[in-house]
Structures are given as C-alpha cells and as structure tokens.
Amino acid sequence: MRAVVLLFLLPTCYGSLYDLIYGTEQSVGVEGTLSCNKKPAAGVEVLLYDKRPALLDRSVDVLHSGKTDAFGNFKLGGTERVHTAKPQLRIQHGCNYKPKGGLCWKRKNVVIPSKYIVQGNRVKEYYDIGHLDLAKKKWDEGFAYCIPPPAWYTPRIPLLAQTVTT
C-alpha cells in the first residue's frame, strides 16, 4: 500500500521540485502601431524581452523580436521558463533624430503589466500599447542618448525609412 501511495506522490513532488528549481512556463504578448510624424514607422526594430533581476544577472532574455510592417504595426509573443517574468518591450528607432558624427538610434522601453503574463506556452491576451507617434514630445524622455546600431545594420544598407530629417 505504501508503495502505491509513493508511486502517486513521486511525480507530483518531482514536478513541483522541477518548477521550484527551473521556474514555470510563462507567456506574454504585446502589440501596437508606431508612427513618425503621423506617417507609418515601417521597419522599426521591436523586441520583447524579460529583464532579469540585477542581483543575479544584468542580461536579458529575448522572447521575440521583429520589425514593424509597412503600416507601422507589430505583434510579438513569447514564452519562457522563469520564476517571475518582468517582460518589457524595447523600441529602437531613428524618428526625428539627426546623428552627429555617426549613426545613432533612440531607444524606449515599455513595461508590460503583470496581468498579461499567463502560465503556459500560449499567449491568451496581447497587451495593446495602442498607437504611438515616436515624434511626440512626451516620448522624448528616455530617447536622448545614443546607442550602437542593431546587429543587423550594416553601412551598405540605407538608413531605415522611418528616419525623417527636418
């Protein structure tokens, strides 16, 4: 009888122990539309990532990355095995930015609310950031510094279409 009880308890304990050590699968998704000066921001790099606690590691886990389509739309979703997910959306763009002495990109991070994080490997509801015009003054904060271009950028490729000079 004890052996039968142990056979039923062992998988339950093992699953809980595994989740305790490696975390559980959590999924999150984000969508929205980007523009620059009221024109679609096509080709803007968007990145869905999970920021790790600073005490453990300063790196990030990329859940999904992509670019906006011709109309400035994007939709990203991803899954990761973690204890506590802290997902963010990173937007890298060149809207209304005139580089001085080289190519620079502006960056904005958007924290995704925890209510959009679900257990399991499928996104149930996407966090909609709505329509963001990257040229608006309210988006200037956080964009003021220069960062290296994304890894996919090479000098032979012309500057992205969303870069507007005024």
Describe the secondary structure blueprint for this structure.
Layout: H1 2-22, E1 24-36, E2 39-40, E3 45-51, E4 60-67, E5 73-82, E6 87-93, E7 106-111, E8 118-119, E9 127-133
Parallel strand pairs: 1-9
Antiparallel strand pairs: 1-2, 1-5, 1-8, 3-4, 3-6, 6-7
How would you sum up this structure, described in words?
With 166 residues, this protein is mainly beta. It contains one helix and nine strands; from the N terminus they run H-E-E-E-E-E-E-E-E-E. Strands 1, 2, 5, 8 and 9 form a five-stranded mixed sheet that branches. The protein has a four-stranded antiparallel sheet with strand order 4-3-6-7, with no helix packed on it. Strand 1 and strand 2 form a beta hairpin. 25% of the residues are buried. The C terminus is likely disordered.
